[in-house]
């Protein structure tokens, strides 16, 4: 059986499955296995589940063949290094689409209708003091224009909710137009600049790659409507966080809903945390028991299948390393 190192907690049933197929070392404590412990344990490991895969780790793991992540995003994989060491990477698409899309809608509703802010307003007794009702106004979600940047599987799940649930008009920008998306959602593909200037809600849902790093910066915020609500549930670094802070401080946009940050956990002195018009969450896009369980199952299955030459969700950039 291949030696396997698991650097994060997994449900018991998933551990049982891995034990059937591999000689496994698990991590059953809070958080994830410390980096120095991982580097210590990888010398004879063929498969690893969890953690950052970079040149340092790869050079300590000469027998490594497969690295599996329990996430759809894999920006913690150094693709070039993995390629040069011949290590295949797998990830967990599909199983989290609906859960992440639900959260994006929640952020849109919450930032647009000021749910978190006004919840605090009621609980702090401000309602009693008598505010003029116009001060409580928000931005409609229904029949507004939604611009989605990155029309992958999660983008489509967001589109479905927004268009059929909230009668939103849909614009999107991605590498290329998608005929099925245009037809199914009565959507329109447009260039990024046009999407930014036309949308009431702007959602970033693109993977973090060298091309999408800081895709949204000062110039892009300048193009947005001053009434726009900006949502990010992809990766913090797709957005220039300093430019976002400035855009909010200068009233270039109306508000934001953020599940991801430049540094996570974000430092307590991040100015975003003191803005009532910004809803902040601790990277919980896929965080429901059912979905996290499905992701763990798929990550384990990917690892075993890839080690045995079976079918696995291998990341796009490394598919050619898989022998047919
Ligand atoms: C969590 C995510 O970061 O799948 C992703 O890419 O961002 C989230 O699901 C991660 O998977 C936690 O394990």
UniProtKB/TrEMBL annotation:
Q: Which domain of life is it from?
A: Bacteria
Q: What is its EC number?
A: 1.1.1.215
The D-isomer specific 2-hydroxyacid dehydrogenase catalytic domain extends over 4-311
The D-isomer specific 2-hydroxyacid dehydrogenase NAD-binding domain extends over 105-285
Q: Which UniProt keywords apply?
A: Oxidoreductase
For molecular function, the Gene Ontology terms on record are: gluconate 2-dehydrogenase activity
Q: Which residues form a coiled coil?
A: none
- Oxidoreductase among the record's keywords? yes
InterPro entries noted in UniProt: D-isomer_2-hydroxyacid_DH, D-isomer_2_OHA_DH_cat_dom, D-isomer_DH_CS1, D-isomer_DH_NAD-bd, NAD(P)-bd_dom_sf
PANTHER family for this protein = 2-HYDROXYACID DEHYDROGENASE-RELATED, GLYOXYLATE_HYDROXYPYRUVATE REDUCTASE B
The family assignment reads: Belongs to the D-isomer specific 2-hydroxyacid dehydrogenase family.
Q: What is this protein called?
A: Gluconate 2-dehydrogenase
Q: Which organism encodes this protein?
A: Paenibacillus qinlingensis
């Amino acid at each position: 059986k291949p030696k396997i190192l698991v650097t994060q907690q997994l449900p018991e049933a998933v551990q049982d499955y891995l034990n059937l197929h591999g000689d496994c070392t698990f991590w059953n404590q809070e958080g994830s296995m410390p980096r120095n412990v991982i580097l210590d344990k990888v010398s004879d490991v063929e498969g690893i589940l969890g953690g950052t895969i970079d040149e340092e780790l790869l050079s300590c793991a000469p027998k490594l063949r497969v690295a599996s992540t329990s996430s759809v995003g894999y920006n913690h994989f150094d693709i070039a290094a993995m390629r040069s060491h011949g290590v295949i990477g797998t990830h967990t698409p599909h199983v989290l689409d609906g859960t992440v899309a639900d959260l994006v809608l929640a952020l849109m509703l919450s930032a647009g209708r000021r749910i978190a802010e006004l919840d605090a307003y009621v609980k702090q007794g401000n309602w009693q003091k008598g505010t003029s009702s116009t001060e409580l106004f928000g931005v409609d979600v229904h029949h507004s224009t939604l611009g989605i940047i990155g029309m992958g599987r999660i983008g489509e799940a967001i589109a479905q909710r927004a268009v059929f649930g909230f009668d939103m008009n849909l614009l999107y920008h991605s590498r290329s137009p998608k005929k099925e998306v245009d037809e199914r959602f009565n959507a329109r593909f447009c260039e990024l600049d046009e999407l930014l200037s036309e949308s009431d809600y702007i959602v970033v849902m693109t993977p973090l790659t060298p091309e999408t790093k800081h895709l949204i910066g000062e110039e892009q915020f300048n193009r947005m409507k001053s009434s726009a609500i900006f949502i990010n549930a992809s990766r913090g670094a797709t957005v220039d966080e300093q430019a976002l802070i400035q855009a909010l401080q200068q009233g270039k946009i109306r508000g934001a809903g953020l599940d991801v940050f430049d540094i996570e956990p974000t430092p307590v002195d991040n100015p975003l945390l003191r803005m009532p018009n910004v809803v902040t969450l601790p990277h919980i896009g896929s965080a429901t028991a059912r979905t996290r369980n499905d992701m763990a199952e798929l990550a384990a299955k990917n690892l075993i299948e890839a080690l045995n030459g079976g079918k696995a969700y291998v990341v796009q950039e490394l598919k050619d390393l898989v022998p047919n």
